[in-house]
Amino acid sequence: MSQVKSVMIVGVGGQGTLLASRVLGSAMLRCGADVKVSEVHGMSQRGGSVVTYVRYGDKVYSPVIDKGEADVLMAFEALEAARFLPWLKTDGTVVVNTQQIDPMPVVTGSAAYPENIIGSVKVEGAKVVAFDALKLAEQAGSVKAVNIVLIGAVAKRLSIDKQVWIDTIKETVPAKFMDMNLKAFELGYNAQEI
Question: Does the pTM of the predicted model rise above 0.70?
Fold first, then answer.
C-alpha cells in the first residue's frame, strides 16, 4: 500500500452505511494500512443522506474526501450516487445499488424522482457497477444485508485479498447473522452488473 485511496459511502439513514464503513476500515487495518474514517450524518433518522469517508494508505492525515478525490463511490441508492458524483475522481468507480428510495419531496408530491439516474451517471464518464443489491440481500436472507452485498462488490474492485474481507466480516458482524452476511458478501462479490 502506498498512495492514499479514498472510498466514499453514501446512502439514506437506516441502510447500514456505518457498518459498511466499519467493515471497510477494518479490512484496510488488517492489511496494515493507516486508516481514517469520518462519519457525516445528515438527517439520517428522517431518511436523509448519510455520508461516510474511508481513506487508507501508508500515511493518511485527514479522513475528509474533497470533490474529485474519491477513488470509489459506494452508493446504497441511485439518487445518492448522482448527488455525490462530483466527489469521484475522473477515473473513479461508482458501485451503486439500483434501488430507489423516494426522498421527502417525492413522498410529499412536490417533486418527481429523476428518470434514468444510472444512465446519467454513466454519461458523466464514471465507471459504473450498477446492480440490484436489495434483491441479492433478500437472496442472502435479509434486506438488511444490502450493506454487505455492496461491500462484496467493492471488495472485488480493490486490490485486497478476498480472505481478508471474509475474516473481517467474521470479526465484525454478530455470530447469529454470520452465514447470512457471508452469503451476502459472496453474492455481491459475484454480482452481475446491469
Answer: yes
